[in-house]
C-alpha cells in the first residue's frame, strides 16, 4: 500500500514560508492531529530550526548512541541528508520526546565518514539514489520496512515542491497567517513548473485571525 503523503505548512497571506512570526503552537497542533507514522524532513529545515532557536548544540552523551524505545504511536523522523550536513547535530532530533527515532536517507555520493558516523550511533539509514535520494524508492522502503501508511512533511519549499511535481502528494494543509511578507516573501510553490489542480476540502477560521485550508490534490 502506497503511503498517503500530506504537506502541512504555515504561510503568510502572500504565500511566504519565512520572514514572519509563525504560530508554532497552532502549527504543530494541526500537524499532530494528522497522527502520521513519519515526519519527512530535509536537512536544511533541521539546521534552520536549530539556528532559529539560537541554542548551543549540547555535546553527545552515551545515551545518544542508543536507539530510542518510545511509544509506537509516535512518528519516526525521516531526514534526507545526502551531504552529511547534520553530522554532530542528529542527537538533538533523537532526544526530542515526540520523535520515535531518526531514520536517515542518503545517496551513493554521501561521504563514507558520515555513514560511519550513523552506524556508530545505531541510526537506521538507507542509501537510495546515486546523487540525490530517489523519493519513490524511499517511500516504498518506508512502507515495506516500517509499515508506514501516512507521511507528513512540513519542511521547506524544495522537498515539498519535489513531492508535488512527482505526483506523490495527496493533500496540502495550509495555515494562513494574518501577515504579508512582501518583498521578503519566499513563496512556497515558486519551484513548480506547471499548474496543480486541487479541491478544497476544509476551510476553517482559527482564533479569529488564522485560516486553515486543506486541499486534495487532483491527479
In short:
This protein is an alpha/beta fold and 219 residues long. The protein has helices spanning 24-33, 43-53, 90-94, 112-120, 135-146, 157-165; strands at residues 4-11, 38-42, 76-80, 102-106, 124-127, 150-153, 171-176, 198-206, 210-217. It has two domains: 1-37 and 149-219, Dihydrofolate Reductase, subunit A (3-Layer(aba) Sandwich); 40-148, Dihydrofolate Reductase, subunit A.
Task: Provide the CATH topology of the largest domain.
Answer: Dihydrofolate Reductase, subunit A
Which CATH C-level class of the largest domain is it? Alpha Beta
The CATH homologous superfamily name of the largest domain equals Dihydrofolate Reductase, subunit A
Q: For the largest sheet, list the strands in their spatial order.
A: 5-4-3-2-6-1-7-9-8
Total helices: the number is 6
Work out the helicity level: 25-40%
Structural class computed from helices and strand pairing: alpha/beta
- Overall 3D form: globular
Poorly predicted sequence stretches spanning 5 or more consecutive residues: none
How widely separated are the two ends? 18 Å
- Largest sheet, strands/sense/barrel: 9 strands, mixed
CATH architecture of the largest domain: 3-Layer(aba) Sandwich
**Sequence of secondary-structure elements:** EHEHEHEHEHEHEEE
Radius of gyration: 17 Å
Beta-strand content estimate: 15-25%
Mean pLDDT: 94
According to DSSP, the number of beta strands is: 9
- What's the number of domains? 2
